[in-house]
Amino acid sequence: MTNPAAIQGGPAGAVAARVSQANDTAAGIEVTEAFERFDQRDDIYSRALWDDEIRSKAASDFYKTHRMMMPRRGDGFRHRDYALRNAGWVGALTFSERGAATQIREGFQDPFVSCYPPSELKREVESPEAMTAEIKRIARTFGAELVGITDYDPRWTYSGKFNFFTRESEPLDLPEGLTSAIVLGFAMDKDLIDTTPSALASAAVSLGYSRDAIATASLAEYISNSGYNAVANMNDTALAVPYAIKAGLAEYGRSNLAITKEYGPRVRFAKIFTDLPLVHDKPASFGVREFCEVCRRCAEDCPSKALPFGEPTVEPYNRSTIKGVRKWSMNAERCFGYWTKIKSDCAVCIRVCPYNKDFSKWYFRAGRWLAGTRFRRVALWLDVKLGYGKRRQPKVWWGDPGTEKKT
Ligand code: B12
Ligand code: SF4
Ligand code: SF4
């Protein structure tokens, strides 16, 4: 779904010259003159493959557990837990591994590749409003729980993509004339996430990626069949969090995660960059920023102490932090270091967040409303008092004899 034209936005310097965009204030985004686009080679997953400060036997074993069974003792890290987690990856891996011969990894380092040539016949779009409604309906039909649309913003496009095979940074290759980003959100299974840290909880993550990949690639195929450019990307190509915020799907939290009204932080995102005429959504607030100022549960409970307790800052922790954006940032080296220790990813910052609730229940909706008022400290106090956010035992999820699932 990409074509061989230059990346929009030009080199990092050109983008830095216009650091602010029209809707930044509404989205709570503050970008300074020190801004530089981020090179994917510097994210912690990439660094684990080329940077001796991060590369280690523990990191290599962490990756190995995704290809072979390496269970250990401990509830949630047994054979069945890893088997389920790895089974959940099938959808996403089918995409990421099909391009190995041409050194591409769709969804992680490269955008999804179209199954058909782009249609030469271009559909006429008389009403961007009607087309927007159509795209949102189709996104949901393909499996996205959330969909929002915003402007294509080259600041969040990686300045280079990491080639998993050569371990080098390479230029991106995006079509010119992109105008919109369609942002898709996929809720992760709460019962599984609540068992984190465990390989079992990671089944919610792997399944999330697999659902994400199939829905995003399918919607992009629909757009490309309609004669428009559609760059479908998941973890590759661009940063998801600022897009989710700009598209009105979420607010930014202390946890560094995009917190949605519907599922809290328990959501995975993908995006499609396109030139299809569409109407853009506006950023929306339901009080997360103010609530995070009084709450520190993610930072307190983070097993690696990777999350910040203080105010948003522009100070990077290390080369894995983007430069020139005022925000709550995390120490990715510590977070990933913990994953390599437990041989699975972690999501404690999702589990303990007071927004990680089943909002189909009226009392949780009431709590969310309270959290958005000046009585937010009461909401936080109640959340702690009622014992929410505790780890659920993996064996309870499996329904082992003698265990009983409490709801
Ligand atoms: C690399 C990566 C990581 C690395 C850390 C990032 C790093 N610095 O290397 C590690 C391994 C630690 C990690 C951990 C997790 N990740 Co992660 N990760 C990514 C990934 C693939 C790339 C992000 C990146 O390039 N970061 C490097 C620089 C930019 O990081 P940074 O400066 O610290 O910025 C972070 C935030 O501040 C924010 N951000 C960046 N720029 C801006 C600008 C503005 C204005 C704002 C407000 C925020 C913001 O996004 C960055 C996320 O890492 C994204 C997918 C994507 N393409 O966005 C998923 C992603 C961010 N991860 C995600 C998740 C869910 C997790 C985990 C919960 C793991 C899990 N089990 O699923 C943990 C949570 C850790 C945490 N509290 O943030 C989701 C977040 C969904 C959400 N609701 O927000 C994403 C979007 C993946 C997805 N497909 O949905 N992750
Ligand atoms: S994923 Fe785990 S280790 Fe990483 S920031 Fe969240 S709680 Fe901390
Ligand atoms: S746990 Fe608290 S501080 Fe952390 S993101 Fe959730 S609401 Fe904000």
Q: TL;DR?
A:
This protein is α+β, with helices and mostly antiparallel strands. Helices cover 35% and strands 11% of the residues.
Lay out the secondary structure.
Layout lengths: L11 H5 L7 H4 L3 E6 L7 H7 L6 H8 L14 H10 L1 H8 L30 H14 L4 E6 L9 E2 L6 E2 L9 E8 L2 H4 L8 H24 L4 E4 L6 H7 L3 E3 L5 E3 L6 E8 L13 H7 L2 H5 L21 E3 L6 H11 L5 H4 L10 H10 L4 H10 L8 H5 L9
Antiparallel strand pairs: 1-10, 2-5, 3-4, 5-9, 6-9, 7-8
Helix pairs in contact: 4-13, 5-9, 6-9, 15-16
The structure holds cobalamin (B12) and iron/sulfur cluster (2 copies).
Structural class determined from secondary elements: alpha+beta
Identify the strand order in the major beta sheet: 2-5-9-6
Oligomer: single chain
Question: What proportion of the residues form beta strands (DSSP E)?
Answer: 5-15%
The major beta sheet can be summarized as: 4 strands, antiparallel
Instruction: Give me the Rg, rounded.
Output: 21 Å
Number of domains: 1
Which percent bin holds the helix content?
25-40%
The total of beta strands comes to 10
Q: Ligands in the structure?
A: cobalamin, iron/sulfur cluster
Query: Would you list the SSEs in sequence order as H and E?
Result: HHEHHHHHEEEEHHEHEEEHHEHHHHH
- Uncertain runs: 1-17
- Estimate the mean pLDDT confidence: 94
Count the helices. How many? 17
> CA-to-CA gap between the ends?
44 Å
The shape, in one word, is globular
